[in-house]
Design brief:
CATH architecture of the largest domain: Orthogonal Bundle
CATH class of the largest domain: Mainly Alpha
Structural class: mainly alpha
Distance between the termini: 51 Å
CATH superfamily of the largest domain: MetI-like
């Protein structure tokens, strides 16, 4: 029936119904448009905050990858380094290398060597650890004693701030850590090429230090490596085995239900609780050394286990039952069907869950603070039982330091940690896409 054929008595109700439907559609479309706008706005706001955070970290941290150093021609005076002439290592270790470096700096700045004031002020431009480079060179090249050798030595953190433009020269001289004469020497050294910014290898090789210019994450990297190896050796096989048992062999009863509920709950437990557990069990009860990598690895392994178990169970459950039935149908045992068919097909999901769990463990700080991994460690640990620290803990310690130079060190180490985490997550995505199968 056409609109023209509708009786006049029914035209009004039909028109009203059509109007109500059109109003309802307009409201629905408007609600959908608002919901889409809210979603887009939420994404834009979230990305904006993310960009602001990363921009702030990068702006403060990129300068930590370069370090100001003096190029000095140091005369390795035999009377200072080896007065006995026997070349004994004990004499070479305690030689007055700072004096040799200071004399070389005075020559480079063309200062009066007889002026004690100028000598003292010039010495303040050098890092307290500047002599390490010269000492290590002498120990490795004893035949060079008595010669003049060019070296790049660390400048003081205040000098580094001046070269990087972070030093406020407008502050009155009495309130500055460097006076006008020292600033003039710094400008002179920069103009002559005797002072320059170079790639900061020390950021990756140095250990803990009270001076920002000689502080690095070398010990933290070794400690984190030991901890991640411990987590991989313990959490991965135990987690996969537990997931296999619960998914394929465990009977469905109240006990297994309680176990599953507790595993899910453990995945949401705050990480500091695991730190308290590690302190009570591994240190106080078992007597393991405090601030050792092995303790940190054990604590992180406990924290990572629930994540690996849950991810592995999900990956195993995603394998179609027809795979199991086909294997059993051709005479394979249940164990053979699992190890030869189910487990290989679940490997992509297992790898993804494992890598994500390891990435989470790598960025944890709270449990490591509880077990004392905030030690001031200068030397590299050679075993997991020696004192060490971890990368996130090192960042925490630098963030609480008062020196201005540690601000850029904190942001620089944060960038390195974020790079490691990004690489691990990208690896998880690549492995999943490479080996994933669609059923």
């Amino acid at each position: 029936m056409t609109a023209a054929a509708i009786p006049a008595d029914n035209a009004g109700p039909v028109a009203n119904s059509r109007s109500l439907v059109e109003q309802s559609l307009r409201r629905r479309y408007a609600a959908e448009a608002r919901f889409k706008a809210y979603g887009i706005a939420a994404i834009v706001i979230g990305l904006s905050f993310l960009v602001i955070v990363f921009a702030s970290i990068i702006q403060r941290g990129y300068t930590s990858f370069v370090q100001s150093e003096f190029r000095l021609d140091v005369t390795l005076d035999k009377d200072v380094i080896d007065p006995s002439g026997k070349g004994e290592e004990s004499d070479l270790l305690i030689a007055d290398y700072p004096l040799l470096i200071q004399d070389a700096l005075i020559k480079a700045l063309k200062l009066d060597p007889k002026s004690r004031v100028d000598s003292r002020l010039a010495g303040e431009l050098l890092s307290s650890n500047a002599d390490t480079t010269v000492r290590n060179y002498v120990l490795a090249n004893r035949g060079e004693i008595g010669k003049t050798v060019p070296f790049w030595v660390l400048a003081h953190g205040n000098v580094d701030s001046v070269v990087k433009g972070a030093f406020d020269r407008s502050v009155p001289e009495a309130r500055r850590k460097l006076n006008d004469k020292q600033l003039g020497w710094i400008d002179q050294a920069v103009a002559s090429g005797a002072l320059a910014k170079r790639f900061n290898t020390g950021l990756f090789t140095f250990g803990a230090s009270s001076q920002p210019e000689s502080a690095g994450i070398g010990v933290a990297l070794i400690g984190s490596l030991f901890m991640m190896l411990t987590v991989m050796l313990l959490a991965v096989p135990i987690g996969v085995a537990a997931a296999l048992y619960l998914e394929e062999f465990a009977p469905r009863n109240r006990i297994t239900d309680i176990i599953e509920v507790n595993i899910n709950n453990l995945a949401a437990v705050p990480s500091i609780v695991f730190g308290i557990l590690g302190l009570a069990v591994f240190i106080n009860f078992m007597g393991l050394p405090r601030s050792a990598s092995i303790v940190g690895g054990l604590v992180l392994a406990l924290m990572t286990l629930p994540t690996i178990i849950i991810a592995t169970r999900a990956a195993i459950a995603a394998v179609p039952p027809s795979i199991r039935e086909a294997a059993l149908g051709v005479g394979a045992s249940k164990m053979q069907s699992i190890t030869h068919h189910v487990l290989p097909l679940a490997v992509p999901g297992i790898l993804t869950g494992t890598i994500i769990g390891l990435a989470k463990a790598l960025g944890e700080t709270a449990p490591l603070l509880m077990i004392g991994m905030v030690a001031f460690v200068v030397e590299y640990p050679t075993t997991p039982l020696e004192p060490a620290t971890a990368l996130p803990v090192q960042i925490y310690m630098w963030a609480t330091a008062a020196e201005r130079g540690f601000v850029e060190r904190t942001s620089g180490a944060t960038l390195i940690l974020l790079a490691f985490l990004a690489c691990m997550n990208i690896l998880a995505v690549i492995l999943r896409r490479r080996f994933e199968r669609r059923w």
